[in-house]
Amino acid sequence: MNRIGEIFAKRFEHWNLRIPEEDLAERRSGFIQDKGWLIQYCFGDDEAGEYMDYYAAHRMTDDEHIRIRADGSVESLPAFSSMRLCSKDPEEDRRLEEDYYRYNREVARMLVEKGFDKFTINMMLSAGLIE
Question: How many other CB atoms sit within 10 Å of the CB of residue 114?
């Protein structure tokens, strides 16, 4: 688990954000809300070994959803899309809007299944959960 903590700390080095040592040792889910970031994390394992997933949201950048494996490998996972394609054709534009919200709602469902239950206003707007 040390490798996971190191990789996370390097990613957020500029903000001096780290997963608490006790959470790493006990593989305990949690969140960090500091310096403009909302970062939720959880631990798991699968056929490839142990990992930590995190979802990071900041109003000044796109969200990221990342899996860091105990072996040090890093995988990108689905995150909210902040950009919606548009069309001058009303029917095409309606379809593009439906696709945008469908994708983001699926991401929201995936996050809730992981136990990530904290959402920023931007996340909720992207999923069409508030207007």
Answer: 17
- Strands 61-69, 37-46: pairing is unpaired
Contacts of residue 50, defined as CB under 8 A and 6 or more positions apart, other chains included, come to: 1, 4, 27, 43, 44, 69, 70
What pLDDT score was predicted for residue 130?
72
Cα distance between residue 108 and residue 89, in whole Å: 28
105-130 average pLDDT score: 87
Phi then psi dihedrals of residue 32, to 5 deg? -125, 125
Which is more confident, 56 or 125? 56
Question: What is the phi/psi pair of residue 113, to 5°?
Answer: -60, -30
Please give the Cα distance from 25 to 43 (Å, whole number): 11
Instruction: List all residues 6 or more positions away from 44 whose beta carbon is below 8 Å from its beta carbon.
Output: 50, 51, 52, 53
Number of H helices, E strands in the chain: 4, 5
Whether the CB-CB separation of 24 and 1 falls below 8 Å is answered with yes
**CA nearest to 57, candidates 114, 3, 116:** 116
